[in-house]
Design goal:
Layout lengths: L18 H6 L2 H6 L2 H21 L6 H9 L6 H11 L2 H12 L13 H37 L4 E6 L2 E7 H25 L13 H6 L4 H14 L16 H29 L3 E2 L19 H16 L1 H8 L10 H26 L3 E2 L1 H15 L1 H10 L4 H21 L6 H7 L10 H4 L9 H17 L15
Antiparallel strand pairs: 1-2, 3-4
Helix pairs in contact: 3-7, 3-10, 5-6, 7-8, 7-14, 7-20, 8-11, 8-20, 11-12, 11-13, 11-14, 12-14, 16-17
Family: Belongs to the lyase 1 family. Adenylosuccinate lyase subfamily.
GO biological process, one term: 'de novo' AMP biosynthetic process
Enzyme class: lyase
């Protein structure tokens, strides 16, 4: 059909494609949730089951095993789709499809198993592999920000509370606040990954009754079967008790840590957007990048905005497993299935995107020290008043008299700033007042911005040395990857 007239049968652009995959996510995370990875894993799980059953004495031949091994990735997706349309059952459609290319093994594929043997166990493998993809990316973001924090550890900048000017901090110390949140996320993701167990070989309602029948009441062989398949799939432990599925609270734990990561990145990128407005710090801006189709001068923080936009989506996804777990009846109901197909994949894809984007941002952050210094000078006179009072008292002055003098001069200076749009001239007024003559020679040192940053420099050094760098040690071999965004 003509453009705009409707979908063509072979026109991929005439059908909706999730931008999470088509526009943003990395190829490796896209593959992790692909049909090829899913159904290839199903076949491997059927192979593991057959191998383990054979090793424990069931009549399965080497020839059958070899036939299955030879066809692990030989998936006829068209045939599988046709079978599913006919059978209305995705697992049995793929059992038939696998059996079609493994005629000798057809009778022992899926022997004793239920659909969740391949479905849930594959999900757990994919979740584990998803964490293994995210963790090095998160570690790289932390590493890049740690380099930034170290570089600017001693650069004073105006702090903000309530988004109002507050005591000075340093650019590096503020960055450490971001890093600390991400370090918590790194620990949470590692914990969630390591807490994952295999569903294993449990049967239709989790009792292993079908396998107990296969092994003629031999409980030890059923337990050994579970251990063997669990190890083949790369897990150290399996859940001892399950219903038909593994507990859907596991999905809550998984998406909770990803949602928490989303919250961290949203906060970081919001700070960067606000700093960009102040012209103190900017994210990378390419030579040919266009900020606005109407306003050529614009330098919009579009990467940070993208992170915030997608992070909001990530944060909301945890509501799905919360509701799903709460409405599962007894050993299992199928109203979890369609929801999980969407929310689990989208959570990992979204986390992958915002981590890649934040790495790109952190590798190219631009700092404007002169702008930062000018803003400090606009606010520093008011902040220095306490130091000035202390210096006057040390020089023999009266604390209350000095306080009143500075109060009057501060209000006059504030009126110049707010009513006339002028610069803060408090220090000039203090210099001009004879009352302050005892400390005139010390005013410059009293106004040194570095004297207002407390232990920020020392805190940055200690934090990076004692907490950040040790945490990154396991990921050192993967630190060299740089991110260049396609869009």
């Amino acid at each position: 059909m003509a453009a705009g007239g409707g979908p063509g049968e072979d026109d991929a652009f005439a059908r909706y494609r999730s931008p999470l995959v088509s526009r943003y996510a990395s190829p490796e995370m896209g593959f992790n949730f692909s049909e090829r990875k899913k159904f290839g894993t199903w076949r491997r799980l059927w192979l593991y089951l057959a191998q383990a059953e054979k090793s424990l004495g069931l009549p399965i031949t080497d020839e059958q095993i070899q036939e299955m091994e030879a066809n692990l990735d030989n998936v006829d997706f068209k045939m599988a789709a046709e079978e599913e349309k006919k059978l209305r059952h995705d697992v049995m459609a793929h059992v038939h499809t696998f059996a079609h290319c493994c005629p000798k093994a057809s009778g022992i594929i899926h022997l004793g198993a239920t659909s969740c043997y391949v479905g849930d166990n594959t999900d757990l493998i994919v979740l584990r592999d998803g964490f293994n993809l995210l963790l090095p990316k998160l570690a790289r973001v932390i590493s890049r920000l740690a380099n930034f924090a170290e570089k600017y550890a001693d650069l004073p900048t105006l702090g903000f509370t309530h988004y109002q000017p507050a005591q000075l901090t340093t650019v590096g110390k503020r960055c450490c606040l971001w890093i600390q949140d991400l370090c918590m996320d790194l620990q949470n993701l590692e914990r969630a990954r390591d807490d994952l167990r295999f569903r294993g070989v449990k049967g239709t309602t989790g009792t292993q009754a079908s396998f107990l029948q296969l092994f003629e009441g031999n409980h030890e062989k059923v337990e050994e079967l579970d251990r063997l398949v669990t190890a083949m799939a790369g897990f150290k432990r399996a859940y001892i008790v399950t219903g038909q599925t593994y507990s859907r609270k596991v999905d809550i734990e998984v998406l909770s840590v990803l949602a928490s990561l989303g919250a961290s990145i949203h906060k970081i990128c919001t700070d960067i957007r606000l700093l960009a407005n102040l012209k103190e710090i900017e994210e990378p801006f390419e030579r040919d990048q266009i900020g606005s189709s109407a306003m050529p001068y614009k330098r919009n923080p579009m990467r940070s905005e993208r992170c915030c936009s997608l992070a909001r989506h990530l944060v909301t996804l945890v509501l799905n497993p919360l509701q799903t777990a709460s409405v599962q009846w007894f050993e299992r109901t199928l109203d979890d299935s369609a929801n999980r197909r969407v929310c689990l994949a989208e959570a990992f894809l979204t986390a992958d995107i915002i981590l890649s984007t934040l790495q790109n941002i952190s590798e190219g952050l631009v700092v404007y020290p002169k702008v930062i210094e000018r803003r400090i000078q606009q606010e520093l006179p008011f902040m220095a008043t306490e130091n000035i009072i202390m210096a006057m008292v040390k020089a023999g002055g009266n604390r209350q008299d000095c306080h009143e003098k500075i109060r009057v001069l501060s209000q006059q200076a504030a009126a110049v700033v707010k009513q006339e749009g002028g610069d803060n001239d408090l220090i000039a007024r203090i210099r001009a007042d004879p009352y302050f003559s005892p400390i005139q020679g010390h005013l410059e040192s009293l106004l040194d911005p570095t004297s207002f940053t407390g232990r920020a420099l020392q805190q940055v050094a200690r934090f990076l040395k004692e907490e950040v760098h040790p945490m990154l040690t396991p990921y050192q071999s993967k630190m060299g990857v740089k991110i260049e965004l396609a869009l």
